[in-house]
Amino acid sequence: MAPVITSLSAAPQGTNQGSYGQTLTINGAGMTGATAAKIGSRTVPATANPGGTVVTCALPSGCGPVSVSVVAPSGTSNSLPFYYIDSPFVSSLTPAENSAQAPHGVTIAGETLLTTNRVRFSGTDATLALPITSDASIVATPAPITPLGAPPWFQSLNLEVRTSGGSFTLSNAALLFDTPAITALDPITGTVGTQVIITGTGFVGSAMSVTFAGVEADFTINSDTQILAFAPTNPVGAADVVVSTPGGPSAPATFTYA
Hints:
Layout: E1 4-10, E2 17-18, E3 23-29, E4 36-39, E5 42-45, E6 47-48, E7 54-58, E8 64-72, E9 75-76, E10 80-84, E11 89-94, E12 97-99, E13 106-111, E14 118-121, E15 124-125, E16 127-128, E17 137-141, E18 154-163, E19 166-177, E20 181-186, E21 189-190, E22 195-201, E23 209-212, E24 215-216, E25 218-223, E26 226-230, E27 237-245, E28 248-249, E29 253-257
Parallel strand pairs: 2-10, 12-19, 21-29
Antiparallel strand pairs: 1-3, 3-7, 4-5, 4-8, 6-7, 8-9, 8-10, 11-13, 13-17, 14-15, 14-18, 16-17, 18-19, 20-22, 22-26, 23-24, 23-27, 25-26, 27-28, 27-29
């Protein structure tokens, strides 16, 4: 009786889609003694388990849809479709700077991303936005990480994208920043235009802002622990001063307009 195959699974993604060099598992019955598999027009060496229910082989080069069958001493099996998928490629990550404690979604741009089934940042799974509707971009949210708590106030993470066609790794793809903190204002009261020295931690990142009661202030970054800001136009009274970086907004400190 000829063997019968019931499903195909390419590793590591576990689907009937894959690429050159991946291991293809063929499930079925009656495949005892099988030594070859036919993948499209090519015949490749294969190994069957003792019970004849599983045959494995390495995927040869190929493209597009092909048929897969098993050759055993009892005959040639039925065929099932298999689909070759090109390996993925990642060109950019936007934004590349994010919060360590409360990261938000990032857009990963590249090629052959439609079958993405896993995204990781330095080995930790990210949350992949589904459904994926584009071959050129996906959205994923990194998992929170423990803040560094010391200079340089950010951590560099590698990105790994896995699709049915394989995996692609981009080194130092993302920077996750500590949330900034304000420890002191000097002075704590003044008029519009007053020069205010803001002391704290985590004053780093390409996108930074300083606000007084929500109004953006002109400022100069002296160091990762000190900012020189000028009180913007604001009604008389107490104003929350907030420093924002890619790590998020700081807790407010109070400046009082005289």
